[in-house]
Design brief:
By secondary structure, the protein is of the alpha/beta class. It contains 21 helices and 24 strands. Helix 3 (92-98) packs across helix 6, helix 11 (290-312) crosses helix 12 (335-393) and helix 12 (335-393) packs antiparallel against helix 13 (402-441).
Length: 790
């Protein structure tokens, strides 16, 4: 599994309990599951941190709510249907966990909005937390129906029900901030007839729809302008006959803490758990051997750990230009650079080990030669001594004088010493020869990675490029994974009836103007004007929409664009801190090829199989195939550099390349021509300009906060600072959950509450504080710009 820290969601104990139960449940169900087709050498695909817009993902089971309808054909391992998991997430602690809140303490937002509670005695805070958690539990138990305060009050147990004013404030806070009464549910109270203000929402993606629903509920008049002829934005589902495939957002990345969990109970979402086993095939159809697969995957994770060590322990995040002095002309290091440097260091280490090995061999051989020379010398001496000794002992003289006896005994002593030295040298020779044989039998590897190893490693790199929607050379070494601690728990799932069911359901009851593209936003102290024109006729007369505020949910790629047709002009121009953050943060590209066949010719029990490319440059080309739907449909992914290259290639060529890859894996006679095919080009889409955001080289997580901050018109000297008029939402504006559907949805809830606080007043303000105007909030707020503006 690629290096991915598990979700923290502010308290680890609850998550660990959930993961333990999920592991036990998966173990039990795997023993009961029926044997299917055996796929050679399966592997676990690294869980990518993001698959959002253009694979925007999501999250885990909730508290004590009714079960989510997740249909699994053969394996009944739906974690959110498991009774043990439901029992764990049942209750106040589970409700807080599912709502991404700490069970036993106030968040900074709550402390700011309830200063009377945060500054009060511990008992007051305990009462607050119990009421808050109980209201969350009541909502999660029945999210299909509005939780009104009149129904909530009787459900609060004594003695916590004694302060009805506090309960009403907490209920209003949770509702305004999108913790309860969000999504698609039965309203028990009609919408306010008297409107407190008017808001224009630009973009009918998941963020814009979520915000519009919230603001309409709070008593604001809302008009949504959408340039496309449909809602959903980068959530787009292909439907034709019995075929179905998501062209954009596709994966729900766990359900624990995920608002999509609640949406799935409100909407007919047919969730299906994705089996993570994934066989890897080479271009000739051979499966990558298991030992080779596991070895390269371990090395992949070691490389990522090494780059993390370089960045966070050694603070190696900047390099200087050639010839520059220390600290001058430095530039930030990318993840791709760091990985290649570590690989080169490993290759250098291989060469150094080879040199050290050869030196050891040469040293031993030198010792062996010296030893043999000494043995030859000793042998010559032994022969001579033995000859002399024999001559003296065989002498005809019967008697020897004392001198002769001394000489004879000296020869015998010398002979014994020479034999002893010979034995020692013989023993040394054996030891040296044994060491030489050992070295020669296990020489170090000639290369760090063979060509096959590098191809498999490149597959893992392509998978990481898919997760981040860009080449590794574009990712910030220090900050590329800054949101890892906030990943949701639970298995990844897909929406078998198409993810577009979510935005379609959220669009009900809203005033949405399709085929209407915003061209300019003018804002001042008295409100905003949005100039819009028909998407297909940009040069026709513009329609001017006037309102108190505008919520911009345009994709980051569109905000980056400076040329028509997708460019939107702001007057006055956006402040430098905002425009610079827009340019710093990255916006990536990921494309898909949908292939609809007459019959299934692949292993129907596998949701994934990989294709190992032949070169580093093409590693992201059709590297992963998904089998997710009931109909015979395959989805091929194109990531990294290949995603941009293939946008300039015709559909016929791309589909032909797909078929060639599949024939290489399954055989020429097995793979038919597809009956239908679709090729996405998200970078070329004028209303998207890419897939989803990433932390680019030179950027950081702080840029998400800057993009989320609202903009106020320039202040006039001598007058109070004006209120913000231009607000921003979308997956690129939420630091903890970027590049995901749930992140975009949560950003819409955030901005809906922020705008309502400003235009409608705060219904949860302390009794001693006025309720009109914006209430204290921990949401990023800025008029002329955040204090952290560079």
């Amino acid at each position: 599994m690629s290096r991915r820290k598990r979700a923290k969601v502010e308290y680890r104990e609850m998550e660990e309990k959930y993961n333990q139960l999920e592991d036990e449940n998966a173990s039990d169900t795997s023993e009961k599951s029926k044997p299917g087709l055996v796929t050679p050498e399966k592997k676990v695909v690294p869980e990518v941190k993001k698959e959002t817009d253009t694979s925007i993902p999501q999250s885990v089971p909730t508290s004590s709510a009714p079960k989510i309808e997740v249909k699994e054909e053969d394996d009944q391992d739906s974690d959110h249907e498991d009774p043990h998991v439901k029992e764990l997430l049942n209750g106040l602690e589970g409700a807080a966990f599912q709502s991404r809140l700490p069970f036993d303490k106030l968040t900074s937002t709550e402390a700011a909005c309830f200063p009377d509670v945060s500054g009060g005695p511990p008992q007051t805070q305990k009462v607050f937390l119990h009421i808050r958690n109980r209201l969350l539990q009541l909502w999660l138990e029945n999210p299909k129906q509005q939780l009104i305060i009149e129904n909530a009050l009787p459900a609060i147990e004594p003695p916590y029900n004694s302060d009805t004013v506090l309960t009403r404030r907490i209920h209003a806070f949770l509702e305004r901030h999108g913790f309860i009464n969000f999504g698609v549910f039965k309203r028990l109270k009609p919408l306010p007839t008297k409107k407190s203000g008017k808001v224009i929402v630009i973009g009918a993606g998941i963020a814009g729809l979520a915000a519009a629903q919230q603001m309409q509920q709070f008593g604001l008049e809302v008009i949504v302008l959408e340039a496309r002829d449909r809602v959903g934005g980068r959530i787009a589902t292909f439907r034709k006959s019995s075929y179905i495939a998501d062209l954009g957002a596709m994966v729900v990345t766990g359900l624990g803490g995920n608002p999509v969990t609640t949406l799935s109970k409100q909407i007919n979402m047919e969730l299906h758990k994705i089996r993570q086993k994934c066989p890897l095939y080479e271009s000739d159809g051979q499966t990558v051997p298991k030992d080779k697969d596991e070895m390269v995957e371990r090395e992949f994770n070691r490389l990522l750990e090494a780059t993390s060590y370089l960045s966070h322990q050694l603070d190696f995040n900047y390099v200087g230009s050639a010839g520059s002095g220390q600290g001058t002309n430095t530039r930030p290091v990318s993840l791709g650079q760091a990985l290649e440097w570590v690989i080169r260091l490993q290759e250098q280490g291989v060469k150094q080990r080879q040199v050290a090995h050869l030196r050891s061999v040469l040293s031993l051989q030198g010792r062996l030669i010296t030893n043999q020379h000494r043995m030859i010398s000793i042998m010559d001496r032994l022969v001579e001594l033995n000859k002399q000794y024999k001559e003296m002992t065989e002498s005809k003289l019967q008697t020897r004088d004392i001198t002769q006896e001394f000489v004879l005994r000296s020869k015998l002593r010398d002979l014994h010493n020479a034999c002893k030295e010979w034995d020692q040298l013989s023993e040394q020779q054996k030891e040296i020869e044994a060491k030489l044989q050992e070295l020669e039998a296990s020489p170090p590897s000639d290369v760090y990675l063979s060509s096959k190893d590098r191809q498999i490693l490149d597959w893992h790199f392509a998978n990481l490029e898919f997760a981040n929607a860009t080449s590794l050379s574009n990712l910030s070494l220090k900050h590329w994974d800054q949101d890892d601690d906030f990943e949701f728990t639970g298995s990844h799932l897909t929406v078998r009836n198409g993810y577009s069911c979510v935005p379609v359901a959220l669009s009900e009851g809203l005033d949405i103007r399709l085929n209407t593209a915003a061209r300019a936003v003018r804002y001042g102290v008295n409100g905003v004007e949005v100039w819009a024109a028909p998407s297909r006729s940009p040069h026709t007369n513009h329609t001017v929409y006037k309102a108190d505020a505008v919520l911009v949910t345009l994709p980051l790629g569109v905000l980056k664009a400076s040329a028509p047709p997708s460019a939107v002009a702001f007057n006055p121009p956006l402040p430098d801190w905002k425009s610079q953050a827009i340019q710093r943060l990255g916006f990536g590209n990921l494309n898909k090829v949908v292939l609809c066949f007459e019959r299934i010719f692949w292993d129907p029990t596998a949701n994934l199989f990989g294709h190992v490319g032949s070169t580093t440059a093409s590693r992201g080309e059709l590297f992963l195939f998904w089998n997710l739907y009931k109909a015979p449909v395959l989805l091929a992914l194109v990531a990294g550099e290949a995603a941009c290259v293939m946008e300039n290639v015709s559909d016929d060529v791309i589909v032909g390349r797909c078929i060639a890859v599949l024939k290489g894996i399954f055989g020429n006679q097995v793979v038919p021509q597809p009956r239908e095919s679709v090729v996405t080009r998200w970078r070329a889409d004028p209303w998207a300009r890419g897939s989803y955001s990433f932390v680019a080289v030179g950027s950081s997580g702080s840029d998400y906060d800057l993009l989320a901050a609202p903009v106020a018109p320039p202040a006039t000297p001598g007058t109070p600072p004006p209120q913000p008029r231009v607000f921003f939402a979308g997956e690129h504006t939420i630091r903890n959950y970027p590049a995901t559907v749930h992140g975009a949805f949560l950003s819409g809830l955030r901005e809906g509450g922020r705008i309502a606080d400003q235009l409608c007043g705060s219904p949860y303000a302390p009794p001693t504080m006025p309720v009109s105007g914006a209430a204290p909030t921990a949401m990023p707020s800025a008029t002329t710009g955040p204090s952290s503006t560079p």
